[in-house]
Amino acid sequence: MEAIRAGAAFLAQGASYSYLRARSLLAGPKLFQDADFGFALQICKWEGFAVAAQDIILIIEAEVRPLLPDSPQERAAILSRLYREVLASESLPEHRKDRGWEDVEAEFDARLAHLMDKTPLSPDAITTATALRLLQHAPITDDVREADKMMVVNNVAFRFIDYQATLRKRIDLPAFARQLCALNGEKAA
Q: What pLDDT shows up at residue 182?
């Protein structure tokens, strides 16, 4: 679980900060010192984190699916529980104090319901969700958001693919699949 939490934080923060630093160019140092910009950047980072965690879980699931229960509903239940544990491992960010993570938990459950009975997506297809969420919350204008969409989607995909290679080195995937199954009392396939 820690690899997912740490990876989601690293990817969301890295992607949002590097994009906004590149986009703001010479104005960057002044913008990054502005309190309102800083708060907007924190929202962008945390909202990105919530979706990055979903995407990392889906990337891992694609790799270990043969080791998980055959039932799409059982796999979804396992992944949903893991996601909630990842979110619960972080303190609730300031902008979510009044509402928690329920909306993104429901969003992930809907993604799982849609994806678990299909062939797993490639990492670049999965991570479009994080890229779009970062763009949605980035403190930029709509015209810039639209103009930069493909650049951000590609940048985020490359970051996740690189992190996937790191996960393969750090995690014993069969053991992780057994841990996932243990979350719901299931036996690995």
A: 85
Residue length, the chain? Answer: 189
Which of 2-6, 34-38, 106-110 is most confident? 106-110
Q: Is the confidence at residue 28, as pLDDT, over 70?
A: no
Q: How far apart are CA 121 and CA 173, in angstroms?
A: 18
User: How many C-beta atoms lie closer than 10 Å to residue 19's C-beta?
Assistant: 21
Return the structure tokens found at 149.
Answer: 């969409």
pTM: 0.88
33 vs 19, 39, 42, 46, CA distance in Å? 16, 10, 13, 19
Q: Would you call 37 exposed, middle or buried from its count of C-beta atoms within 10 A (0-12, 13-18, 19+)?
A: middle
Asked if 160 and 121 count as a contact pair (C-beta separation under 8 A), the reply is no
Choice between 182 and 126, residue whose per-residue pLDDT is larger:
126
**Residues 124, 26: Cα–Cα separation, whole Å:** 31
Phi, psi dihedral angles at 140 (to 5 degrees): -135, 170
